[in-house]
Amino acid sequence: MSDSIAIHLHIDKPETLPEGYADAIGAIFDEHASDVTDDPSLDDISGVAFVGTRNDIADDLCLLMKGGTLPAHQFSFTVYEEPHHEALGTLLRYAPGAGDFEAACTNTGEVVRSFADIGEAIAATTDRASLIAALEAMYGETNSHRRRMTGE
C-alpha cells in the first residue's frame, strides 16, 4: 500500500494509569493500525496505518481521557509516523492542560527543524527570553494548540 506508513505510539508514565487503560489504549491503536506489535509497557506500540492516522489516534486518546473523571485519567503521549518516500515523518505530542505540538520527525521520532524555521523564530522575537521560548517550543515543548475536545 503506497499510502500506508509505519506508526508508533508512546505513553508517558503508563504505570500511573487506572486499571484497564492500557487495554483501552491498545484497542484504540488496534482500531487504526494493522500489523500491530503490542508492547505491554506502552513504551512503543507500532504498526502500519494510513498517512495522517496520528491525528485520529490522538483524538481518540483524548476522548478516552475526557471520559475519565480523575486526574489519573489524564496522560501525555507521543504518536508519530515514520518518513516515507521523500517526506519527513510527522510527530504529534500531547500533554493535558498544555495541548499539542506537531513537528516533522525522523524515523525514530526525533523532531527535525529547518534553517528557515529557526530564521522565522529569530525574526519574530525581540529579546533573548522570547527567542529561547520560541526555540524551546520548536523542539518539543507543547504549545497552545488544543486537541479537539469539548471543554478544553
Describe this structure in words.
- By secondary structure, this protein is α+β, with helices and mostly antiparallel strands.
- It has one domain.
- The protein contains 4 helices and 7 strands.
- Strands 2-3-1-4-5-6-7 form a 7-stranded antiparallel sheet, with helices on one face.
- Strand 2 and strand 3 form a beta hairpin.
- It starts with a strand and ends in a 14-residue tail after the last helix.
- How many DSSP-defined strands? 7
Tell me the major beta sheet.
7 strands, antiparallel
Q: How much beta, percentage-wise?
A: 25-35%
Strand numbers in spatial order across the main sheet: 2-3-1-4-5-6-7
Mean pLDDT metric: 83
Number of helices: 4
One letter per element, helices H and strands E, the order comes to EHEEHEEEEHH
Helical percent range? Answer: 25-40%
Question: Which class best fits the helix and strand makeup?
Answer: alpha+beta
What count of structural domains? 1
- Rg from C-alpha positions? 16 Å
Low-confidence stretches: 141-152
Label the overall shape: flat
Query: What is the terminal separation in angstroms?
Result: 36 Å
